[in-house]
Amino acid sequence: MTEGPQPNAPEEKKRLSGRAIGAIVLLAVALIFVFSNTGTGTIGFLFLSFSMPVWIWFLLVLVVGVAIGSLFPWFRPKKKRK
Length: 82
Hints:
Layout: H1 18-36, E1 40-45, E2 48-53, H2 54-71
Antiparallel strand pairs: 1-2
């Protein structure tokens, strides 16, 4: 009687999904962008003018994008019902 591999065997390695690999690549690109843009940038909005390091602007735009993306779930794949 032979035993096949068990699903929870400790020697079995987990593989990264394509989504996780894509997220890691995007994170690396974002970090390269942040560390290569350490200068100061100025943004004007209406009658206000804001000046701060460019990497902070990048993080602010990223946070706003995530917030907007979570408000509008139209492009998320729908879960299949069983």
